[in-house]
């Protein structure tokens, strides 16, 4: 099961993640979804307190108020999230997801393809997205990065994949009200979606 979300306000009880982070350049706090620098801030007294390890923004209940705390991103960032308004080359998208301990989206079944399509439609941020699919290893075999799992379910658009020499990364796009797949050159910039690693599948990445 994959979880789809925008990082806005998710959490349990009185601890909530909000979409602030300084993962982008390790210095500025920005709103994750938009890359905008955070203007208003409501840090709890003494926070932020661990600038080198706590790089995501949490809010929590302090007395009767909601105050801010920097916290390690790994703690409970459990959701697949999209970085809006940002296009990136495939390798940069891989790096970005890795920096937040996630990986680029993989799609393992028709149901997942439909689920992602619904999410993309509702998010309305664009209709061309990188996934973690690539055939960079030998130019032939399509695998999901980073585990190099062979891709078995596919949903190629008409005439795709079209160029084994120049198009080695897997993009999904909206075509005739469906989410179709297309091989594209890895250095083109698209939106992208990161997802969490499967809990059941904690093997060491080997690409
Ligand atoms: Ca803190
Ligand atoms: Ca193509």
Automatic annotation (TrEMBL):
The identity of this protein, by name, is: C-type lectin domain-containing protein
Residues in C-type lectin domain copies: 16-82, 77-195
Check the record and name the InterPro entries matching this protein: C-type_lectin-like (IPR001304), C-type_lectin-like/link_sf (IPR016186), C-type_lectin/snaclec_domain (IPR050111), C-type_lectin_CS (IPR018378), CTDL_fold (IPR016187)
Q: Which SMART domains match?
A: CLECT
- What Pfam families has UniProt attached to this entry? Lectin_C
| Entry annotated with the keyword Disulfide bond | yes
The protein's superkingdom reads: Eukaryota
Keyword check for Phosphoprotein, yes or no: no
Signal peptide positions are none
Entry keywords, A to Z: Disulfide bond
């Amino acid at each position: 099961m994959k979880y789809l979300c925008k990082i806005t306000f998710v959490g349990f009880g009185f601890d909530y993640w909000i979409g602030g982070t300084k993962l982008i350049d390790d210095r500025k706090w920005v709103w994750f979804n938009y890359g905008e620098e955070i203007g208003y801030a409501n840090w709890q007294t003494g926070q932020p307190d661990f600038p080198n390890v706590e790089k995501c923004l949490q809010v929590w209940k302090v007395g009767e108020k909601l105050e801010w705390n920097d916290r390690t991103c790994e703690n409970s960032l459990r959701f697949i999230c999209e970085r809006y308004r940002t296009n990136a080359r495939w390798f940069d998208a891989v790096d970005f997801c890795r920096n937040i301990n996630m990986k680029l989206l993989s799609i393992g079944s028709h149901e997942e393809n439909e689920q992602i399509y619904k999410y993309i439609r509702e998010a309305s941020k664009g209709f061309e997205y990188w996934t973690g699919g690539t055939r960079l290893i030998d130019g032939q075999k399509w695998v999901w990065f980073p585990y190099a799992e062979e891709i078995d379910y596919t949903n190629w658009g008409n005439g795709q994949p079209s160029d084994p020499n120049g198009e080695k990364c897997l993009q999904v796009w909206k075509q005739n009200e469906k989410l179709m797949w297309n091989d594209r050159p890895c250095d083109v910039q698209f939106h992208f979606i990161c997802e969490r690693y499967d809990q059941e599948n904690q093997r060491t990445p080997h690409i």
